[in-house]
Specification:
The chain is an alpha/beta fold. The protein is 58% helix and 14% strand. The chain has a single domain, classed as Rossmann fold (3-Layer(aba) Sandwich). The N and C termini lie close together (10 Å). This is Adenylate kinase.
Length: 190
């Protein structure tokens, strides 16, 4: 089983790359955002709990997020592996994920981080904002705030996975095909 944490700042191309990788390696892509939206839309117990926190402007506690992801993994028990996208975001989430997978005799094989200069990302996101309907992609100050959030939290996770020799930084600039090829070169060594 290959279990990958796909990481990168907003606009780095995580969703695009996850789609190619799940096909190439027959993996299940678990996007935290999609899982949240599904649970909230379908008014699951965890979705209602998450919505309560979000409606109050609070962060959803790790335990709720982790339980949603555990449910997704359990739904796909026969998978060849998982691409975790948008999770973990903190060291405590990474430790909880390690413990959960460890109980199943599994582990995270690698954190693959798409590395893209901030100015390139701003341009990408502003361009995406013209067609995506996402208001957070149309305001440069909001975009830069998201990068600040990402950079503050990522440094910790980079160190966490690097200490386990599981961190792989990938140049996220170039054609989609070139970036997929770079990631595949890492995947094929795992």
């Amino acid at each position: 089983m290959k279990n990958i944490v796909l990481f990168g700042p907003p606009g780095a191309g995580k969703g695009t790359q996850a789609n190619f990788l799940k096909e190439m390696y027959n993996l299940v892509h678990i996007s935290t955002g999609d899982v949240f939206r599904f649970n909230i839309k379908n008014a699951t117990e965890l979705g209602l709990l998450a919505k309560k926190y979000m409606d109050e402007g609070d962060l959803v506690p790790d335990e709720v997020t982790i339980n949603m992801l555990k449910a997704e993994v359990e739904k796909n028990a026969d998978a060849n592996g998982f691409i975790f996208d948008g999770f973990p975001r903190t060291q405590s989430q990474a430790e909880a994920l390690d413990a959960f997978l460890g109980d199943k005799g599994e582990q995270i094989n690698a954190m693959v981080a798409l590395e893209v200069p901030e100015d390139v990302l701003v341009t990408r996101l502003l361009e995406r904002g013209k067609t995506s309907g996402r208001t957070d992609d149309t305001d440069e100050s909001k975009i830069r705030n998201r990068f600040n959030e990402y950079n503050t939290k990522t440094a910790i996770l980079k160190d966490y996975f690097d200490a386990q020799n599981k961190y792989y930084g990938i140049n996220g600039v170039g054609s989609i095909e070139d970036i997929t090829k770079r990631i595949a070169e890492v995947f094929d060594t795992l």
